[in-house]
Amino acid sequence: MSAERRIGPTYPPSEGAASVRASLRALRAAGAAMALPEPALELRPSASEPPRLQRAEPREGDAMRVRRVAGEPVAGIVAFLDGIQESRVLAHWPGGVPLVHGTVAATVRRRRARTLVAWRPDATRIERALFVPRAAVGDTAWTALATSCTVRDTLEPGAGGPWHPQELTGHALSAVQRRRECAETACAELWCADGDGPLVVDGGIASAGTAAHSPLAIGVVKSHRTLYVDGDALPLVLGLGAGERTTTFTVTSPRRAPVASWYLRLRDPAAHDALWGIVRVEVAVDGATTDRADLVSRWLLAERSPVALPDARWGAMSYGVRLTEEYLRAVTR
Amino acid sequence: MPIGRVVATERKPNTPHEFHFWTALDAPVGIGTIVRVEGPPTGDGRLVTVYGVVVEGFSYTDLQTPLHDVLGADGDPSAALRAPTDRTEIRLYTAHALRHVPDEPLQPVPMGTVHLATDDDVAVALRMDGYLKEGQRTGIPIGLYRSGAMQSPVYLDADFLLGPEAAHLNISGVSGLATKTSAVEWLLSSIFAHFPVQKGSVAAVCFNVKGPDLCFLDQPATRLDDADRALYDALGVPAEPFRDVEYYAPWTARGHALATLRSHEALSHNVHPLSWGLREVLQYAEVLLNKDDVDAKADALIDFIRERVVNQEFADAMLERTHTVRSFADLERWFREVLRGMEGRNAETWRTHHVATIRKVRNRLSNISTRCRGLVTDDGTASDLPFGAFRDRAVYVIDVAASEEDAQDLIFARIVSQLREQLERRTLGVDHVVVFVDELNKYAPSDGPDTYVRQMLLDIAERGRYLGLVLFAAQQFRSQVHRRVVGNCGTALFGRMDMDELATPGYATLAPATRIKLSTLDKGQLMVRHPHFAQPVFVRFPRPAVLGGREGVERFPAEPEPSLEVAVTRSLRALDRSVTLDWVKQAIVAAPEDDVLRARNRTLQARPDDVKAYFRSQFRGRAAVESVPSTPSSLPLAGSGSDDPYAF
Questions:
Q1: pTM metric for this prediction
Q2: Cβ-Cβ contacts under 8 Å, A75 against chain B
Q3: Does B459 share its domain with B548?
Q4: Does residue B642 belong to any structural domain of this protein?
Q5: B70 found inside a domain
Q6: Mind telling me how many Å the CA of A1 is from chain B's nearest CA?
Q7: A150-173: string of b/e by CB count within 10 Å (b at 16+)?
Q8: For chain B, N or C: smaller number of CB within 10 Å?
Q9: Distances (CA, A) of A127 to A98, A201, B152, B401
Q10: Looking at the predicted complex, does its ipTM rise above 0.85?
Q11: Size of interface A-B (CB pairs under 8 A)
C-alpha cells in the first residue's frame, strides 16, 4: 500500500486538496517557520460586534405581540443543513504573518425512517485550503505555495500593509467563514432546487442565495447578538414561554435578502438566562403568513426531542442539526 | 456485501487475538457468530483475512446520561416514540480471532470490512480444512453452526477426539435437561456413521448410572420432527437407533430378575446378566476395601490368596484336605479350615500371616458377595461382557442404576480395567472403545480420598488415547471433577450451565456475554471446545434418534420381579422356547432356591444344546426324581394344559 493511501483521509475532499500534511510540506518548502500546535482560531476569544437592538418592521399587525403556537408539535422537517469550520495557524511568514490552514464543510442530511442519511454526494462539500495574505507574503511565496496546495487570499485585492498580526489572523478567520458560507449556500441551493420537503438550515437564510426565496428553506438562528426588537418589544421576547412565538417581522439588510422572521421559545428557560431556548426563525417573505409561521413553529417544536445533549447549545439546537454537525466532524477528521 | 467494519481506538485497540467492529442495527450478528475480516493487501500484495467469533456485543447511543433521554421525552416514555429522529445507535461487537491467513507475521487485526462467514469460511476458521480433505477425512460431525439463515456443519477431528493425537470428551450441563445424555447419544451415532475407515473399528461401552436414560438405545425415537431430520441429513448421519446394542445388568438381591428398568419381555432378547465370581472379583478387591481395611499385612494375604490359592489345588499341613478354591463359598470353607487348624494347634501365625489378619481378610472378602449381592456369586459362575469378541459399531450398556455404590465401583473398575488390558493386547475385538460415564464428579472428584476408581480414570485420561480407550464423561459441575481428568479431555462440550458453576475460576477465560449465553442455552445447543478451534463455538445438534428414557418406560414398563419359577422359565426360554412353566415347576420341585438359581446361571452361561437336560443335571441327586412313577393317590401337578409358560 502506498504511503498516500495509508495516511490519506478517509473521506477525500470534494473541493480543494490541501490536507494539513500537504500544507505543512508546502509551507516548509516555501521557507515558512512552523508554529507550535495551537487551539483552533474559532475557539479564541474574538472582538466581535457589540450586542444591539434593531427595530424590525412587523408583519402581523402593527406591533410585535406574543402568540401561543396554534396546534400541537408535528413532525414535518425533511432535511437538515449545517456547516462547520476549523482553522489553525500552521506557520508564520517572516514578519509575523500567520499562515492559516482552514477546513470548511457543509452537508444536507435527509431524514428517512427517523434516521438521517446522506441526501446525495454533491450535497456534501468539504474544502481544505491554506489561507494566506498574499500581499503580505509576496507573489513568489504565494506562487510556491499554490503549486503544492490550494491557497486562498485573505486580503481584499489591492490591500496594503503593514498589518497587525492579529488583524491578519482575523482576516483569515473571516475568509474561512466566507468559504463555509459559500459551501452552505451551495448545499442549500441544491436542496431548494431538487429537494422534496422543508429544510432546516442552521443559521439564517438571508445570505443563502436563492434559498432565501424558497419555500423549502427554514433558517434557525441560535445566537442573538442582534435582537430585532425595539425597547417596548424586548420584554415580550425575553418573556416568551415554551411553545410561544412573537408575531412575524421583516429582517432587511443591505447585503442580504429580506426574510420574514419571528422568535420562538423552544424550552422553558427555568434557571437559564432569558434568551435560553429561544431561536429566531427565518423563512422567505413570500407566503410568510400567520398560518405558515405557526406550522413551521410546530415543526420546530417537534424537533425538541430527542435532546441535542451533550451539546452545550442544546436548548436551541435540534437533534437533527446536532447529528449533521457530528457527521461533518467525522468526515473531516 | 459486508455487514460491518473493523474499528479501533486508542482506548479500545485491536490486537492479533481480539478485534472490534460495528454493524448496522439489523445485521444478523450475535454472540457466537463467526465473521471474516478482509483487510487491505500486505506490503507484498497478499490479502490478509482474519476469522473471528463474536464474544461480546455493545450497543450505545450519543447519550451521555439516561437523564438526557428523560429530559427529551419530558419524562414520558411514550413521547420518545413520537420523536421525529431516532438517536444514532451503534452496534459494536468484540470478536476473538480464530485464525489469521496468512498466519505469519501475526499482527493486529487490520481495519477492513467484516463479512458473515460462509461454509468455506467456517471450515477455514475452525481449521477443519486440515482434516476434511478428500481421501484423508477424519471429521466427525458434532453439530450445525447457525448464523441467520446460514448453517454450516462443524466437525471434530477423530484423531483428536478418539486418539492418538488427543482424546477424551467431557460434557457439562445442568441436570434434568437431558443435554448430556442426548449429546452423547447423538455423538456416538455420528462417530459410528463417520469413523474413518483407516482408523479401524470402534465400539461403545456405556454405564447407565441413573434412571432409564440409556435403556432404549435400540428403539427408534418417536419425537423426531422435520427439523431434526433435516439436521441429520445436513450432517450425514442416519436418523436411526443403534443397530447393535447389548445390555448387561447384575441380578437383583433375590436373583430372580436382572436389576434393570429394561425388563419388559419384548426387550429381553439382548439383556444379559452381569455376574462375577471369586476369580473375577478378587483382582479388584481393593476397589471395595479402603486403606483402613487393607493395610500392608492384609494386602499381602490377599495377594497370597490370589496367587497361590484361587483356581489351583492348595494343600497345607494346617488343612485337613486339598482345596481348590473357585468361588466365595470355596474360599469361605478354606478360611474356616485354616482358622480351625490354627485354633487346634494354638498357633498365632500361619505362613507369616497373623490370625487377626486372617480373620480380618476373611471378614472383608466374605462380605463382598453380601455387599455386591446380585453381582457377585457365591458359586463362581460368571456372566460377563464378550471381551475378545467386541463387535464394530456395537454399544454395550451396563445398567448399574439399581446397584449399590460398592457394586457400581466394582463394575466400573473391572470392566474398564479389562477393556484396557485387552486393548493393550489388541485382543478386545475392536480397535477403539468409547467409555461413557455420567456423574464423573462422583467417580473422580476433585477432593476427597484417593480411590481406585479415581486413579483408574486418571490413568485413562492421561494414557488411554494411545490404546484406543477413550473416555466420554459427563457431569453437572465440571469444577468438582479432578483437574487432571478434565484437563486431559481434548474436547469439551457445554450445555446449559448453572450460573454458580459459571462463576467458578475455570470459566474465567470466557467472555461475560459467552458465559451468560451458556446459562441460557436451549436444549439441543452446545458450546464446543476442541483442540483445532482457537475459540469455543456454538452448535446445534439434533434430538437423538433413540427412544428417550421416560418414554421408554411408558411404552415398555418394567416388569415386577417374578416368582422363582417364572424367573427361571423366562431365563431358560431365551435358550429353548420349549421350556414351559409347568416343566420348570416339576424340575425344581423342593429344590432350595439357591440351587435353582445356581442351576439357572450355569445353564445360561453354558448355553447347552439340550437346555432341559443340562438344567436338570445341575441338581445334585435330582435325576432320580423323574423315574419315580406317580401313585394313584398322588394328585398330578396343576397344569395349564397348554404350552403357555405364564399360565398358572
A1: 0.79
A2: 82, 84
A3: yes
A4: no
A5: yes
A6: 6
A7: bbbbbbeeeeeeebeeeebbbbbb
A8: N
A9: 20, 19, 49, 80
A10: no
A11: 59
